[in-house]
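Possible race condition, two jobs.
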Amino acid sequence: MSLPQHQADVEHNGNGVGVNEHNKGRGMFGVHVPHVPMAIPKKPEKPPMSLQVKNHVVAMIGEYVGTVLFLMFAFGGTNVALAPETAVTSGTTAGDQSTIQTGNTSNLLYISLAFGFSLTVSAWIFFRVSGGLFNPAVSLGMALVGVLTPLRACLLVVVQILGGMTAAGIVQALTPGPLNVRTTLSPGTSVSRGLFIEMFLTTWLMLAILFLAAEKHKATFIAPVGIGIALFMAEMWGVYYTGGSLNPARSFGPSVADHQFNGYDWIYWVGPALGATLASGFYLLLKWFEYETVLGPETDQPQKPSGQPGAPAAQGTAQTPASQHPGLEQTGLGTFTDAPVDQSQDARLDRIESILLRMSSNTSNGNGPTRFPRESMSTVVGEGSPKHAIGQMPASPTSPTQPTPL
């Protein structure tokens, strides 16, 4: 039993050749048309390997130089703040039975400002080159949310650590005295406390980076300002207790330059990594819930509530002729500055024709001037309405057969 054939397949001409075979490759009037196979959409091709390698190299160079500049100025400011000669506001407060050492808030503010402003400027410079991350923990977070590929993230982590070491070496070579910028726990701060402090401070910084820089919106161009302020606020808390690392490269570089390592230095790696992971998970959760639909898409102008002047018409209501034709909302000839040039000229000519028609009608009869009821603009220039020439304008439906004298 043979399979059923399509009707077009069983039709033949007189020569025994199938009609479809006979006409295959022939277009209208029997003209031969070459057969062009249907184009099958292809997957987007990856850029050439040479271009990929070049992009990786450029990103690594930008990230290395940016990390060096960021940490060099931050280390320099910290070294100035912690020099013994600048400790003018620190002192002791006498108690009943003991003496309490107070924190030097001037130094803490100085260090926080040095890190915050240094990150702001450096990230703004290298934002379009490598992303302006300067932090292995941030690179980890960007890879978790899919902004960076794993290969690019690993390459950036390597140059960020090298940048931290270079910055610490430059500051140690240029400034007299020992390099006093290592991150250490303050007396009374346990290792577990330091770990969670570093974790939550890095979460704060990572959230600022994800929602201001990774998430594209109208304020993305000033994202480095918000990120720098976030680091400034984190340093205001973290410097006193943990040294305010939030960055493995920031802690590892000075330790290498000073040849000193503490037994708890691992918290400056694990804490920021946990913070970046926590922030990335929260970001992905909000993206899964499509948080953009809560307030709606961004608009150039704020939405005005209905009922106020300039508010958009409610859905389902008919628009007025003035809203259909911009620039015709005024009486008389109106203003045409806001309407396109071609539309405003047509509307002006139609309006002039209507005025001339009325003037000719008023002076043509001998009963004196007459007044016709005013027609709506939709009748004159409305969408879909025919444009009448002078002398062919229809009579107003509301007017009597004879014009009413004034």
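Job #2 (started ~2 s after job #1):
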Amino acid sequence: MSAPQSVRLRVFSLNCWGIRYLSRHCAQRYAMIAELLDREQHDIALLQEVWSENDYLFLKRALTTSHPFTHYFRSGVIGSGLAVFSKHRIEDALLYQYSLNGYPYMVHHGDWFGGKAVGLVILNVCGMKAHVYVTHLHAEYSRAKDDYLPHRTVQAWELLNFIRHTSADADLVVLGGDLNMHPQDLGTRLLRAHTGLRDCYAETDTFHGCEDGITLIADNPFTKKKDLLPFEKGIRIDYILIKGSDRVCVRCESMSTTKGSVPDKPFPYSDHESLTSQLLLQRSDCMGGRGRQRDSSSDTGAPVCERVEVVSEARGVVKEGLHQTERLRLLAMCVLAVGLALLLLPATALPWFYPHGHCALSYALLGLLEVLGLAMVVSGALLYILFTTQLKALSGTEASMKLAAVNLRGSNGGCWEEEEGTEMEAPASLSHPPPHGGARSEQPTLLDCKE
């Protein structure tokens, strides 16, 4: 029997806020989420912040009939929190853990312990090969002073490259999750420009849900109002992004979000709103030759000049992160040096002060200085290792971005600009590039198919 020429696919995404003993009403909310998924019969459910494996196993048991295929991604200290439930058979799965994810000493933020990552499952959807990604990026704790912006930018760069290098033979690409970035933030623009992924909310035929598609709303009783400042109504940081291929055309027919409170329930599913997108998949051979033709911009969804501009902007952020981390490593070296000095001080200074007596105070001070010195040596050494590792990750990402920018400029004469420190010379035909500047245009949207 031949495969159907058009298929509808319902995709669900939710940050479950499942921190055991810290998140409010965790067990009750997981029961509500399981009931929702079983009732709505989504084809694919992409969940984030399922931090406890016991909670995952509860969902797996509850959804055995409605979503028989599932995968849980394990990483970090407490896990990635990423889980996929599917009606369609999962043929393969792969996890990539981001190289940067905050700082372990920022315990009150906790991102480092979560092992943030991107998970990939490969599904067979009615004969079409679907690469489905779920991810959760580092949180933004302050809009005015975002110390984690370089880390989140590196995560976005690693995410887009992971998608690019693992989806070459996919008929359909779907990315869902909590990106912790606004639609026009640098990381979001970087991701869309270099992968060609399209925002379901931006191009859906019909939408039902929160105003402006926001997913962290002020009306949710679990939301801390101060976390939304300066956005009084809320922010949109959760997404479902899609991309077709030259074999399969995909568009979003409808999209919806929850709106905080749940009818007949005492509280919402989570502090985030859930997303549901209904996708229409059509094989290109039924489109009368109107499937997408690949060219230099259609694979990525943005003109080369715009891709150069956004990657150059990202390089600037990563360079600032390098300077910040170098300062932190220098501070760690100072702590280490002071600790070594304190360890040596009792053996050299105290005998000079007390050459003849056995003062109890001198022995107490000796012990205190040795303990303090040892603590500073251990802390300084661990911090030095941490910041050295982060420096390597930042410098590696900056070098990768530089290479991408150089190659993009070389592939398009109108975008060529001499790169400081670049070991590549411009072709002769590009030795006199036209003036480049002016305001950047709005991010274009590339449709895989046209009506």
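The chain has a mean pLDDT of 87.
Logs attached separately.
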